[in-house]
Description:
Elements: H1 6-28, H2 38-41, H3 45-59, H4 67-70, H5 74-84, E1 95-99, H6 111-116, H7 118-135, H8 139-144, H9 153-173, E2 180-183, H10 187-194, H11 200-215, E3 221-226, H12 230-237, E4 243-250, E5 253-259, H13 260-271, E6 277-279, H14 294-302, E7 314-316, E8 321-322, H15 329-337, H16 342-353, E9 357-361, H17 368-375, E10 382-385, H18 394-403, H19 407-413
Parallel strand pairs: 1-2, 1-9, 2-7, 9-10
Antiparallel strand pairs: 3-5, 3-6, 4-5, 7-8
Helix pairs in contact: 1-5, 7-9, 7-11, 9-10, 9-11, 10-11, 11-14, 14-15, 16-17
Amino acid sequence: MQDQPPRARDDFAVAHREWMRERVAHYLGRPVDDSVSLAEEGLDSVAALSLYGDIEEEFGPLIEPDDIWAYPTVRQLADFIAMRDVDPGESRVRAAFVFTGQGSQHPGMTSGLYLNSTGYRAFLDEADAAIRPWTKQSVVKLILADDPAVHRTALTQPALFAVEYALARTLEEAGVQPVAVLGHGIGEFAAATVAGALTLADAAKLVSMRGAFMEFLPPGGGMMALCVTPYEAAELVAGEPAVGISAINAAKAIVLSGDRAALERIEARVGEAGIRCRHLAVSHAFHSPLMAPVVPKFEAIVRRLSGGAARVPFYSTVHGRLATEPLYGPYWTEHITAPIRFADAARSLLGQQSPTHVVEIGPQAVLTPYLRRMGGGPRGPVCIPVCQGPASDAVDLAGVISALDAGPLSAALSGA
């Protein structure tokens, strides 16, 4: 879409904040601080319903009553409304960015884009420069060399982060501004950076340290996908303390992670019930109890992290919901062993943000099938991966940008 100039965007948001500040002050009978939560300011449920009515009257059906508490400050609520309050002459594309996790990497990923897209090349070089002080290796050289070392955890995590950061910034430069972001596993670091909760420098340090710490864990861990409900999965791991639920990707798409021998025992049990399992090709048992030795070292690193609140709605797969709290160090420490509640977070994003498009940001399509099913198939948002796989190049990227009503062709058609 042809995005508004930064000044116009800022003025648009300021106008919504001033309006919201005036309405909340009306109900409280005093001025309000737009960075303090409405609950702390003393707004009760009756006043909140009246405020909802004011919003409906002024702007139309942009939000639900619960959104008043989901975006707890005047600034957050006003910015959310401003983001959804699209002028009739503007593009109606509302794109959410969903960042893929570990396992989507492959040798040579996005090399075609790097060689043929000057925009992507600049952003990947930028991420590479931020990562290199920590890894002492170039992500760009790793990718261009088609090196299978990209599957080493110490390199996988920073390389995936760099690729996803560069892909997202390339879309933004073309005029595609996300209405919300969500990341699966390591993808949350790129999502948080794009949302403004982490700086590029801090994220580069964290993903590099995280990958290095995990690589030197003892071997013996594994991960296994199976078609059961979260409740059934909880029963399966109840007697296996070295195994945990590492990801809930859909209603009946669970990944277990932990001690390999324990996973095999679970596989034998569910096999008797006719449930098939698939062992994943991983080096370690990510998001499992076996990650616990990493936590103290990582906690010491993130203790000095500045962090902050996301400026774009950030849907947390640690909490399975919109994260309105700042993403400080404790969040990223919990992230190491917490299950990835992707299904909950994705459903919340789709329900609350009503995107017209969901773009999977990563080197190949992994999450798009889940997103299409959650979105309701043909009736839901258009779900497209920015990269289909190893052969994706600048022509494919141009097609994605065009599908999002952005880029120079869109500008030309709109008379810009």
